[in-house]
Amino acid sequence: MSPLDLFFEVLRAAALSVGGAGSLPLLRESLVVPGHVTEAQVLESLAIGRLSTGPTGLYVVSLGYFALGWVGAAVALAAAVLPPLSLVAVATVGRRWLLTPWAAGIIRGIALSTSGLLVATSVQLVDPGAVQVALALAGLAAMLHGRVHPALMILGGALAGAALEAL
Q1: Residue 163, burial from CB neighbour count under 10 angstroms (0-12, 13-18, 19+)
Q2: What's the pLDDT tens digit per position in 50-79?
Q3: Do 28 and 85 belong together in one domain?
Q4: Other C-beta atoms within 10 Å of 41: how many?
Q5: N or C terminus of the chain with fewer C-beta within 10 Å?
């Protein structure tokens, strides 16, 4: 794998993810499957990313290091930060259009579709029981009502989870 290949693979993964470990599936497919890095190196990169300061998405730097040494680390860092930095420039130029009602509607639609995908994925990963569905609906009702502080929602969810675990 050349540094240019690594750059474009990390750039693709960073551009198509929402941050954090969101780029991991694409990077795993493009680096582990062909044999450029091992599964153990991916796990080690994730551990380094979690233990080090800064964003957890910087595990990509150590993954680049495992693939091509110091050059790979520098290339991976440049490719990982390029998409967010380019969005800052785009937002600065398009700020006038981002403040319009249609742009707010698009952002709301994206947020709702993301929430739906999160719920669908959660249901596939964990088969919810009737109690969990009731708790989710109660939380949704409290959130839509809008008068419950988010910290209280988190505390209530933690207490409900602890109570369910004790049963």
Answers
A1: exposed
A2: 888 777 778 899 999 999 999 999 999 999
A3: yes
A4: 17
A5: C
